[in-house]
Design brief:
There is one protein chain. This protein is mainly α. It has helices at about 10-30, 35-40, 45-60. The longest helix is centred in the N-terminal third of the chain and has 24 residues, at about 10-30. The chain is flat, with a radius of gyration of 18 Å. It starts with 7 loop residues before the first helix and ends in an 8-residue tail after the last helix.
Length: about 70
């Protein structure tokens, strides 16, 4: 067992994610809110990871990983 989803379940999960993205984007468009805020909100998990990596790589006395 590899621990990865393969085959039809993988395709269904990808389609579900795409469907959620399309519905969320359409709903946000109906709100008539600013699109820069949409971009910030959709990238928020990635932006929080940058802060996490900064703590790991740049804290003095912490082992720096390559």
């Amino acid at each position: 067992m590899t621990g990865f989803v393969t085959g039809i379940p993988k395709v269904l999960l990808r389609l579900e994610g795409l469907g959620v993205l399309v519905v969320a984007t359409a709903w946000y468009a109906k709100l008539d809110a600013s699109w820069w805020l949409f971009a910030v909100l959709i990238l928020a998990p990635d932006l929080s990871m940058v802060g996490y990596l900064e703590q790991i790589l740049f804290i003095p006395g912490h082992i720096q990983r390559p």
